[in-house]
Amino acid sequence: MSTAHDAAPGAAFSAGAGTTTGSEAVKGLSQGAIIRAKFLHHKGAMAGLIVLAAIAAFAFSAQGVGPIPGWWIHNHTSSGTVLNPGGAPTWSLSDPFSFGAHPFGQDEIGRDNFARVMKGVQISLMVMVIIGVVSLVIGTTIGALAGYYRGRLDSFLMRVTDGFIIVPTIVVGAILGKLIGGPGFSFFGLPLSAYLAPLLGVALGGVLWTSLARLVRGEFLALREREFVDSARVAGAGDFRIIVKHMLPNSMGVIIVNTTLLMSQAIVLETALSFLGFGIRSPQISLGQLINEYQTAFATRPWLFWWAGLFIIVIALCVNFIGDGLRDAFDPRMKTIPSWRKMKRADRRVASGAGAEAAAAAGTETGAAADTARADDNDDKGARH
Amino acid sequence: MIRFLLRRTLSTILVLLVVTFVLYLLLNRALDFFWDLRASTAPNIEDLFASRERLLNLDSPVIVRYFQWLAGASGCLVGACDLGTAWYQGQEVVDQLPGAIMNTVKLVTAATIFSIVIGIFIGLVSAIRQYSGFDYFITFLSFLMYSLPVFWVAVLLKQYGAIEFNNFLADPVLGWPAIIGTSVLAGLIWMGALGGSRRRHLYSFLGATAVTFAVIYAVLAFGWLNSPSLGIIGVSLMGLAGAVVITYLSTGLANRKALWTSLTVAVIGIGLYMPLQNLFWYVEMSWLWMLLLLVVAVAIGMAVGLAFRGRDPWVSARTGALVAVVMAFFVFVDRVFQEWGNYNSHPAINNRPIATIGAATPNLTGNFWITNLDSFTHLLLPSIALILISIASYTRYTRGSMLEVMNQDYIRTARAKGLPERTVIMRHALRNALLPLASVVPVDIITMIGGAVITETIFGWSGMGKLFIDSMNRSEIDPIMAYIVITGLLAVVANLLADFLYAVLDPRIRVNA
After folding, report:
1. For chain B, what is the radius of gyration of the CA atoms?
2. Which of A259, A312, B55, B419 is least enclosed by beta carbons within 10 angstroms?
3. Dihedral, CA atoms, B17, B18, B22, B23, nearest 10 degrees?
4. B403 contacts A373? CB cut-off 8 A
């Protein structure tokens, strides 16, 4: 997100949005600049982005990455003496500025819950991103090929997609998770701890791409009838060039938005599988695995349960908000129609001679059409129950 | 159309075959058929391994085993089903399935219906009050619920909805801050939902707060929680209120014939209360009886509506039937609640009525009402968990499509010709806004039979989802394959049904091969 362009499009955007048409005001801005400005003005998405970035930075710096050590004094495996009775958190609301040695508490053998939750956040975020990237690549490739070439290739690829759709995601996920974590599986002789999380991400990404493939195919079917594709072909461009240079940039909106929304499913799916024992499993850590491990201790040590769950919810919520903001930003139908109340307020301000600010104030409102729920939402049903 | 259906069905069956083949190979690789022998120190361990190999026919290649399984499974087409054996338990898969399917249907039916109805209602109100505080609140809440992991919610529900709540029931006392806080919150929500002018805002806030406060206070003061019952007074009040609300939503109170119909139906229901109690006392009830009584109630409702005649008797008949269903529901709930005392003091329950696990209390015998009450206390928590997490998508759907519809020209036309806002929303907008849901709801309902895997596992509900997870943990390949085939077939049927329904409902869509 470059901040250099911020001021100009942002200002032009809000100034124009006070009127109902607004098209002259955004003249001269590139598509990307308009989208960026819309996204940067989406409060929910910006809040989600900031919180998510903060969580990621916090978790990765606290526990370190690979050989680089983190700043937190404990690590997630070593056990120590139990400080408070039962391992209760040393950080409490009555004295919020003293964190103590174990702010999130300890488990029954004295492992530090903060270190474990941070490690779990790291792993879960990593799996989420891998799932996103893998689904993005597979879904876009299959969708693009099916939509561009149509005919036999299309029906073959769509039947493959159907094959993935008719079995619930969580079922395929459980089978794949059991496969790669099982004793009969080895990955180039590496230890299980080294490959389990990334490979789980790849496996789940290989399951979750279906909705993206369908959407990209739909987009490509529409795009390939457009004039600019014809002119590129007449100019002698090959299939690969047309797909990559001409059609993919035009379907970026669909791809980015749906990959983001898919990642929020991804983290819930990974944690659910780990909870069931088919994903990341002990001694590896993920947020779902922590909840699985500590669910029986809930009555005696609730803090072990609360923090892991809280981080799952906050991460999923942030990703959902970012996805929503992106959807609004990419939706060309979304005009900035201010609400009735804001229009009245603007009218009143105009009457009192402060027209410019009023128009600017009315500009950040989001439009109705953008809230339309997309049909792809139903593909993840099985994953959440 | 038939050609389209045939082609679609055939190609998907082919896909399903390929899927089962690939998954069979994967499962064969993933499952450890000797997991229970690995840590064994028995002296004859070699023999045990060998006999397991013979039992599961592991000598023959996996492809041969797949086709043996397929041959048995395709016997289902001619009525000789052989889906294999769950070897660890030594049980035929065919015997496992009916119970599991029944249990799942029992769990997901109510949850799905409630989440669809509540979700649509909330989405509708949220769309009408677009950009209000209520709308933002609902939007945030639906995002939150969409992000909730069900396993986390389920563990919380078990702790607070069952264990703590049962403790609370032993001594139901709430502090003043809790009561006042709940009342004010309810007041704020109602204020946002009802909307209107500033004055109306104030009135609805004060009214809703006062009513909530009175209800909570009365429930606590009269010890209602430990002897819950509606009684004839409760049934009458709620029935009459239901009649008015239903009439308001379906035809508007201006339609006097419909209003009289629904009030008459409610009064007939109240009049039948005592005779029904006698019937329930002298005759052993069953669900067949309940269905019969419901049909009778609907018939009475429609008959009353038609008897009132008027310009459009079928509208009145529909309203009457709806009111009759509501009355029947209240009478049923009242009768079930009458057993609460007996149920609660039963030694198997021991005054801890809300259950955390399973579908029925073992060692509990009783009449139709007691067993049903027992089912309800077991259904309560898993249903809440399912409703909480599935409600959000329906709310978002309805809100989105409602907003799109409300911007259409025909809505402006309807308003311009002077129709009341209720008619515009309920008849012109909502019906069209629900159209996209027609392609989502059948898929949801049918795929739900595949089971709510996580919810069932946590609440120990032995349905399809739990069957799958248990079989995975026991490395039994046959039940897993049966599960995959059943969910796959259901998904195929559901998608076909959704396409078909959509094409029937929306004339703009044409299905062709």
Report:
1. 27
2. B55
3. -40
4. no
pLDDT tops 80 at residue A378: no
Helix crossing, A210-223 with A192-208: angle to 10°? 40
Q: Distance (Å, rounded) from C-alpha B142 to C-alpha B388? A: 9
Cβ pair B233, B294 in contact under 8 A: no
Question: Residues B9-26: what's their mean pLDDT?
Answer: 90
Q: For residue A336, count other CB atoms closer than 10 A to its CB.
A: 20
| Torsion angle defined by CA atoms of residues B117, B120, B123 and B125, in that order, rounded to the nearest 10 degrees | -70
pLDDT at A9 over 80: no
pTM: 0.84
Q: Is the separation of the CB atoms in A365 and A14 below 8 Å?
A: no
Q: Chain A within 8 Å of B23 (Cβ-Cβ)? A: yes
Task: Write phi, then psi, for A79 (nearest 5 degrees).
Answer: -100, 150
Strand, helix or coil for residue B58: coil
Round to whole Å and give the CA distance between B253 and B239: 16
Q: Do A171 and B453 touch (CB under 8 A)?
A: yes
Can you tell me the distance from the alpha carbon of A78 to that of A69, in angstroms, rounded to the nearest whole number? 15
Is 60 exceeded by the pLDDT of residue A21?
A: no
The complex's ipTM works out to: 0.84
Helix (H) or strand (E) holding B91: strand B91-92
d(CA A35, CA A32): 5
The pLDDT value recorded for residue A365 is 40
pLDDT band at A294 (very low <50, low <70, confident <90, very high): confident
DSSP secondary structure string for all residues of B376-399: HHHHHHHHHHHHHHHHHHHHHHHH
Higher pLDDT: B30 or A353? It is B30
Chain A residues whose beta carbon lies within 8 Å of the beta carbon of residue B11 = 159
Measured CA to CA in angstroms, residue A85 lies from A78, A110, B147, B431 at distances of 19, 11, 33, 59
- Residue B237 makes CB contacts below 8 A (sequence gap 6+) with none
Reference A56, options A315, A374, A356, A384; nearest CA is A315
**Looking at beta carbons, which residues of chain A come within 8 Å of B469?**
174, 276
A337 phi/psi in degrees, rounded to 5: -95, 115
DSSP state of B148: -
- Compute how many other C-beta atoms are within 10 angstroms of the C-beta atom of residue A206: 16
How far is residue A279's CA from residue A289's CA, in Å, rounded to a whole number?
8
Give which of B448, B451, B446, B452 is closest to B490, Cα–Cα: B446
Please, are residues A136 and A67 in contact by the beta-carbon 8 Å criterion? Answer: no
Whether chain A has a CB inside 8 Å of the CB on B390: the answer is: yes
Calpha distance A337→B103 (Å, rounded): 49
The tokens for B264 are 């008459």
d(CA B429, CA B398): 11
Three-class secondary structure of residue B85 per DSSP: strand
Q: Considering only alpha carbons, which residue of chain A is nearest residue B468? A: A171
Is 50 exceeded by the pLDDT of residue B128?
Answer: yes
